[in-house]
Each structure stands twice: as C-alpha cells, then as structure tokens.
Design brief:
alpha+beta, Beta-galactosidase, Chain A, domain 5, TIM Barrel, Immunoglobulin-like, 3 domains, globular, binds (2R,3S,4R,5S)-2-(hydroxymethyl)piperidine-3,4,5-triol
C-alpha cells in the first residue's frame, strides 16, 4: 500500500519506490507538510511538523495564531487570516472580503487516479493494481462554507506524486476565487538553487540555474499560453547536484495557459515552492453548488541528481500522460514544406518534393501554412479553412491521392485559434475575436485570437476542420498557434466573469483537441506554437509530439533539446533536418550533424529536397534507415546526459539506453574544434556494468587535412559496461567544427 494513515500520530505517508511524502494534521486541524525526500522505511518523522515554534514577537502565548501560521509548513496555505508567505488559495466572500482558513475534515484512499473534469491529467494506464493510488483530503472553511478536496496521486514506479484540488462552494452565496494554485511545498533551505527553462522565439527552454535568494523568485507566463520565454517547470537543487549526484525537487505544471512557478526564501530560512495558474490575470466566480478543478501539478524527487529526475518524468509522461496510440509507434518520417517554400507552393511543387522524398525513404508530406482561403502571405485567411484551388490545383482529394500513389502519407497544417481581419470568418463574425470594448484589437503577425471560451466559435471551427479531414486521406495534423494572446475580453460574459476568460480559453482549446482526437482516433496530432511556445505536459495529453522550436540549427538545437529533454521524453520532441545556411542563424552545418541531432526527436526534414546538393540528398537514405533502426531505443529508452554544450563545453553528448541494458545509442557532437586537439575521454552511463558491448561508430569518415588520409573511428571495439562507464572511451578528435557521430552499443 503506497498510502497509509497513522491515526495516532495523525500522519499520512505516501511512498513511491524511492521517495516518501508526508502530511500531518495539527491539533487545530490544519494540514501541514512534514517531509518530502528519500524514502523512509521506518520512522514517520512527525516531529518535523513545526507546531511548537515560539511566537516571533515578545509575547506569552505559546502558539499565537499569527506566528503559528507564518511558520507552519502548510500543504495548501490560504490568504487573508495571517501567514504572509506565498499562498495557494485566496477566496473572497460575498462582500468581496479576502479571508479563508481550511480545516481538515476527512480522507479517502483509493486505487487508481481520478480524472479532472475538462483538464488534461495523468492516468493509471497499464500500471498494476496498487501501483497508482490516490489520497483525497477533504478540508473545509466553515465560515465561507467552502470545501477544498486536495488530491495526491502516487505513481510508485516513476517516483512521482501529482497534486490537484477541487474547490466547491457549499454556501448559498457566491464565492470568488482570486487565486488557486496546484501545489505548494515547504523545504528547509540547503543553499538551494533554482533551475528554470527560459528562452525566446527560436531558443526555447534553455537551462538556467541560479541561487535562491531571500524573497520571491518566479517564472511565469501572462501571454495566455505557455510561452517561448518561460516554462512551467522548476527544480530546486542543492549546490552539489549534478546529473548523477545531489537532490532535485521538481514541479511541472499540466497546463497550457498563464502560470506562475516560484521559490520563496523566507525569514525562517525555508523555501516555499509553488506552482499554479498565474493569479494576476485570473478570477473565477463560484456560484452556490459549483466546483472548480485546479489543474494538476507533477512532483518528483531524486536523491541521485538531475538524471534520475529526468528519467522519472520521462517514464511518467510515457506511462501516464500521453494517450495517443502513436506513443510507441514509429512515426512516419515526414518532409514539411514550410522552410522549403513558405507560402509559395502549388500542387506540382509539392508533388515534385514528394517524388524526390520517396526515393530517399521519407514517408509523409506535411503541407504547411498557405493552402487555404487566399493566403499567400501571413496577412490573411486564418479562419477560412477551405482549400485554395488556385494553389492546390485539382483540390485536396486529388493532391492526397497523388501523394498516396507515390507512396507517402499526407499531413496538413491548421491554426485553429487564429482569425485574420481579412477573412470571410471575421467579416461574418467580428465579435468572435477576443476584444475589449471600445479598443481597436491588437494585431500580432497580422492576426487576432478567436474567443475559444465560446462554444459556438469552437463548434464552427471544428466543423470546418473536421470537414477538411473527412474530405481526403489525411494522417497527420499540425495544430499551430502563432501569437501571444491579448485583448482578453468578450461581449458575452458579465463584468464579474471577464477575468475568467483566460482559463476558459485554455479549457476551450482542450475541449477541441479532445473532440479531434476522439473523432479521429488514429490521427497523428502534433502541437506547435510558433515553434515551441506551447510545449507543456497539458498538450502531450492530446498530442504525442510537439514542434520543439522554429530554430533547426543543430548547434542551437543542442541547447533547446537539452532543456526539453530535462523534463520530456525524446519521443515528444519535434526535430527536423533543415537546409544550409540555416534560415534563423545563417549557420552552415554538415548535413550529417543535422541528421544526428534531429534523430533524437520525431525525425523529419524541412527543406527543398529538389534543391539540396546531391551529396546531402544521398545521405538521407542512410539517415532514414537509422531512424527505423534506432527509433524505439530513442523513443522508449532511458535518457542519459553525459556532457553539455550548455555548460560551455566544446562538445555535447547524450544517449538513450534500452530498459534492459541490451543496447544503447549515444550522440557525440564536437561543437568547436580546438587546435592541437587530443582525443577526449567520455564516460558513458546507464549501461549494464557486467555486460560486454560491441561499439560501432556511425559518422562519415574524416580526411586528415595534412595528408588527405581517411581517419578511422578510434572508438570502435568491444568493452565492458563497467569500463565504458568508469574509465570511458576515447572520442577521437576530428578536424572541423560541428562534427558529430553516433555510438551504437549492443550487448553481446
Ligand atoms: C510557426 C511554425 O512553428 C512553423 O513551423 C510554421 O508552421 C509557421 N508557423 C507557419 O506559419
């Protein structure tokens, strides 16, 4: 049993394979946090619940409420009645006064994992009975007559605990939720450092690490979606934490809208870690009898560094979040025409790409932006989801049939949440765009955002999209979203509910993706938002892959993909081979390196295959074969980060190892060559120490610039797992920047 309650000590103990989370009840009935960390087998650590601290002002009362609440590590701290650190819940009464105090009432423990209505959330999946358990704690504010059900689900094998809450108004008066976070965790400060994933368009999810200082340090989004800039993931680590050593506490938010993730170092030298919907742009009016579901937050703890943390999250998402039947299937190797043609294409151009692609082993054409309405630039037609037959001569059915005849599948691009001012849809329904009365709408990339909080808007878009999908043989959809959301208002909701729209919008997106994936169960759905601006655990509930970044420059990708892999399995990460010079950086990289780096994600090409140099095109055949050879190893294996270009090292190395240790694939990139360079000792990881492995290097041979002789791969050979991990192999230095190779290891 992974959850138990000690009635004498009033302690709930939640155990995963390697971690324990403990919750305690105080005499007053508050629900406090006791412990989160390495698994405790025997003791119950009840003494850690700080209920006996002296008051902080001179006084005689042993436990005055103000001091007590300021120091008590609360599981779900509330606002208004004292306790001045970050709160998780702020509720207003019918007079608009902010005050809430929650007291424990009862608990239940159940097998499995309940759903959260309207929201993406983890599930039991194929776990054995007893491996996924849920604790529900019922709390009440007797003055407001509001209940809060705190939910904790324990995923034993993956060392994950998820948290969420359901807030119910049992009063006969309205209550207003001003803030509702999903998780709060109080930890003693151990010189903690905060890891975040930050970025911009074209450089998403770069890893940053900073010391936690007094006060509140947070990342968040106010852009209506997850954003390129910040990511709903934070980890608190100790200074000595590396890939293999030290503590890491991670929180990851299963939500695709505004968020805030924070670490607050208090005067008592403890750190409060919180995660939830951004409170500044959110209120929710809770009518009598109504409930509000707070999105889920994923927590994991690793005492063996960041590597274990990442593997916990990878396993968790693969086993308990991604529902698509495509999860373990080989995804068709695609060729996308965006960077090949931008808006300038027609049926014949697409077919010429397809003919060439077929010869190289590519399996699917994705027709990107520009096939609908009269869209020849990014200034029109979003919302007019019917085929532009001037470009797609013969129509969509003809095009897909021709593509299929040549032997490729067909995928298509939509941007379902957008509306162009120059569109039939906008001319017919100008009120369908989000808007603030009396103000001119704010254009971004020439477009407005549709009001997805409204059912009639969603229904109309869905009818158009599903009509297109039924009109031809379409295997894949790329769902794009190309701007931050602004003008968040509409002409429908009453004034007191206008601040609900951001959340209602996100729920609307979820509803439509749910419909799409239910009605077209075999469809391969890829989410995208101007690259990776909506790459989050909420979206992988609907789509097994997300476009990682518009930046396909492999050197830039090293950082982007390392940050993404910190929290997501590689099978989720859209990665393509682009042309040279790269369209975002102008950098020219070897075709081989472009292939090796893209191989770590959902592999594909985004270039004009009819125009690239012959020697590059010739390499595609081998690359597509490698994808088939290594797909399941990359998609389902255990991930190990060996070296990082992000840490300013001149090289980068990562790999995946089959769960049974029988096979592994490591990618090594020499980003910058050094003069008088020597071979480099690289210690691999994750292998079977007793296993004997045959190592084969994939990578083109290199000519010695001095004498033109072919330089052999010095890494090839037979090694024990132990020597590869402890002593390492020698990665041969090769002349030139951006040189990469693959090391494939098979246990004999
Ligand atoms: C942004 C995406 O990330 C690109 O791949 C492409 O689909 C464009 N949008 C099209 O407008």
């Amino acid at each position: 049993m992974s959850i138990c309650f000690d009635d004498n000590k009033k302690i709930f103990k939640l155990d995963t394979q390697r971690t324990t989370y403990m919750i305690g009840l105080t005499q007053e009935g508050y629900v406090g946090h006791v412990y989160y960390g390495a698994r405790l087998e025997s003791a119950c650590a009840a003494h850690l619940l700080r209920t006996g601290e002296p008051p902080f002002t001179p006084g005689v009362l042993p436990s005055e409420k103000a001091a007590f609440l300021d120091t008590l590590p609360m599981e779900y701290p509330t606002g208004g009645v004292s306790g001045y650190r970050e709160t998780a819940l702020e509720l207003l009464n019918e007079l608009g006064q902010n005050g809430c105090e929650l007291f424990y009432r009862s608990y239940t423990i159940e097998e499995g994992k309940p759903e959260l209505e309207g929201l993406p959330s983890s599930f039991k999946g194929a776990a054995a009975d007893g491996e996924v358990m849920t604790l529900r704690l019922l709390l009440e504010d007797p003055v407001l007559n509001v209940t809060v059900e705190l939910r904790y689900s324990v995923f034993e094998k993956e060392d994950v605990i998820t948290r969420s809450a359901v807030i119910t108004n049992a009063a006969d008066k309205t209550r207003t939720i001003r803030k509702a976070y999903s998780a709060c965790l109080d930890l003693d400060n151990e010189d903690m450092e905060l890891i975040t994933l930050t970025g911009a368009w074209g450089r998403e999810r770069h890893i940053e690490r900073q010391k936690v200082r007094h006060g509140r340090t947070y990342v968040g989004s106010t852009r209506g979606y997850t954003s390129h800039q910040e990511h709903p993931f934070i980890a608190l680590v100790t200074p000595e934490t590396t890939q293999k050593t030290g503590s890491a506490y991670a929180m990851h938010f299963v939500y695709s809208g505004n968020f805030r993730a924070q670490a607050e170092l208090s005067q008592w030298d403890n750190v409060r870690m919180t995660m939830g919907i951004d409170p500044d742009r959110f209120t929710w009016v809770l009518d009598p009898g109504c409930s509000f579901a707070v999105p889920e937050c994923v927590l994991t703890y690793s005492e063996c560094g960041l590597g274990r943390m990442s593997r916990n999250l990878h396993d968790f998402y693969r086993n308990h979040m991604i529902r698509s039947p495509w999860l373990h299937r080989e995804r068709p190797i695609l060729i996308n025409n965006w960077e090949a043609t931008y808006f300038n294409f027609d049926t014949e151009k697409l077919l010429s790409i397809v003919r060439e692609a077929k010869k190289c082993g590519i399996e699917m054409l994705v027709m990107d932006d520009g096939w609908f309405g009269h869209r020849n630039l990014d200034d029109s037609s979003l919302g007019d989801w019917y085929v532009n037959e001037e470009k797609i001569k013969g129509g969509l059915k003809y095009l897909t049939e021709e593509v299929n005849k040549i032997g490729l599948k067909f995928g298509i691009w939509f941007e379902p949440e957008a509306i162009s001012p120059d569109s039939d849809l906008f001319r017919a329904h100008p009120d369908w765009a989000l808007q603030i009365s009396g103000r001119e709408g704010t254009l971004s990339r020439g477009q407005y955002v549709l009001d997805y909080s409204r059912k009639e808007v969603r229904d109309a878009i869905y009818d158009m999209i599903s009509g297109i999908l039924r009109s031809a043989n379409i295997d894949y959809v790329k769902w794009d979203m190309n701007r931050s959301i602004s003008d968040i208002g509409n002409l429908v909701l009453p004034p007191e509910r206008q601040q609900e729209i951001s959340h209602r919008y996100v729920l609307g997106v979820y509803e439509l993706q749910e419909r799409l994936t239910k009605d077209f169960p075999d469809l391969l759905l890829e989410n995208c938002a101007g690259g990776g601006a909506r790459f989050d655990p909420g979206m992988i509930y609907y789509s097994p892959q997300i476009w990682c970044s518009d930046d396909m420059d492999s050197v830039e990708r090293l950082r982007i993909q390392e940050g993404t892999e910190l929290a997501y399995p590689l099978s989720v990460m859209g990665a393509h081979v682009c042309c040279a010079p790269n369209h975002t950086t102008g950098r020219i990289l070897p075709f081989e390196t472009r292939g090796h780096v893209a191989l770590s994600g959902t592999f594909g090409y985004e270039l004009d295959i009819t125009k690239i140099p012959d020697e590059d095109r010739e390499m595609i055949q081998a690359q597509t074969q490698q994808y088939h050879q290594f797909h399941s190893l990359i998609a389902d294996g255990d991930y190990y980060r060996i070296h990082s270009w992000n840490d300013e090292q001149p090289y980068d190395c990562w790999g995946t190892v089959a769960k049974d240790g029988s096979e592994a694939l490591f990618t090594y990139v020499q980003v910058l060559a050094k003069p008088n360079q020597h071979s480099k000792k690289i210690r691999l990881d994750g292998l079977d120490p007793q296993g004997v492995y045959e190592l084969r290097t994939y990578g083109s041979e290199t000519k010695n610039p001095m004498n033109g002789e072919i330089m052999a791969h010095i890494e090839d050979g037979v090694y024990t797992g132990e020597e590869l991990m402890k002593a390492g192999i020698l990665a041969g230095a090769v002349p030139g920047d951006y040189r990469s190779r693959l090391w494939h290891l098979v246990r004999k």
